[in-house]
Design a protein that fits this description.
The chain has about 325 residues and is α/β, with parallel strands linked by helices. It is built from ten helices and seven strands.
Length: about 325
């Protein structure tokens, strides 16, 4: 039994409605027309050159898309005023002192406007603000820089190739070291000598450190000379006395100077000392003889008893 005309009309209407909804959703998704319903603000940036930039290109801030280019108009004789349509919810995070520059989505991708910089304390951008323009580096500049770097790299490679060839041919100091076995052996011997000298210097430094530590120990002569307040003045006084004695030896008017210079006076002094020694020996013999004399024996015995009593304990 076929459906009634009314039921058939309802089914057709539902099918058409679902199809229309799917079509609208697809258009909005593919064409990104949902941006039409997003609240936005419009700010402006004036560029001297907008190579390749067109209406609808994206605007980026901190790596996120925040809007699109709304329109491009000439301003003055050499500037292009670019109206930037920025989503209102994103504008609250963009400082008003941010800079705008034209970049690329990749090395050879579509042109974009990049917002960057700004201070956290600045007010967020608002409707009608005019942003300052920063320096932009376009693909042409990047390609030119890469080309210049390639030229420099080729020059460096050529020079390095020539240097390696000269070394391999034995030219220059490096080439002689590589090819001349005698020179290499001499250089190796010199390096060994330097290493030995370094080890000896290290040992000498260690010995000096031990010697210095020993000098700093209490009771050492150097330590006492440096720290004792009495030794240094005594040494100074002794040095002054020695200097005076040396000065007296040089002066012929002093006794020491006369003895040092006058041989006859020195001989007389020596003879006098010899006579004095002989007289002392004779005096000792006379005293010994006097002790054995009968008349003086009692005197000497009495003196010996007195000396023994003086040495007894308790006296």
């Amino acid at each position: 039994m076929s459906p009634s005309p009314a039921r058939r009309s309802v089914l057709v209407g539902l099918f058409v409605s679902v199809g229309a909804m799917l079509l609208i959703a697809g258009v909005l998704t593919i064409g990104d027309l949902n941006d039409t319903f997003t609240r936005k603000i419009t700010v402006q940036a004036d560029f001297e050159e907008v190579t390749g930039l067109k209406k609808g290109d994206n605007i980026w801030f901190s790596g996120m898309k925040v809007g699109v280019v709304k329109r491009l108009d000439f301003q003055g004789s050499a500037e292009v005023a670019v109206a930037l349509s920025i989503e209102r919810h994103a504008s609250r995070h963009i400082p008003s002192d941010s800079l705008a520059k034209i970049g690329s989505d990749g090395l050879i991708g579509n042109r974009i406007v990049v917002l960057y910089g700004g201070t956290p304390d600045a007010e967020p951008i608002a409707e009608g603000d005019r942003l300052r323009v920063g320096d932009a580096l376009g693909p042409e500049e990047v390609i030119a820089t890469l080309q210049e770097n390639n030229v420099n790299l080729v020059a460096i490679t050529t020079d390095l190739k020539g240097l390696v060839a000269r070394v391999a041919a034995g030219e220059g100091t490096a080439g002689k070291l590589v090819t001349d076995e005698v020179l290499y052996a001499s250089a190796q011997a010199s390096a060994s000598s330097l290493e030995l000298a370094a080890r000896n210097a290290e040992k000498l430094t260690a010995s000096l450190a031990l010697f210095t530590a020993a000098l700093n120990q209490d009771g050492n002569l150097a330590h006492d000379l440096a720290t004792d307040r009495e030794i240094y003045p005594n040494l100074t006084a002794t040095t002054a006395d020695v200097r005076g004695l040396v000065g007296g030896l040089a002066d012929p008017d002093t006794l020491v100077g006369t003895l040092a210079r006058d041989e006859a006076a020195a001989a007389d002094l020596k003879a006098s000392l010899d006579n004095l020694n002989r007289a002392t020996a004779l005096l000792a013999e006379d005293l010994e003889a006097a002790q054995h004399n009968v008349l003086l024996r009692g005197f000497f015995k009495k003196r010996e008893r007195a000396e023994r009593k003086a040495k007894e304990p308790g006296r």
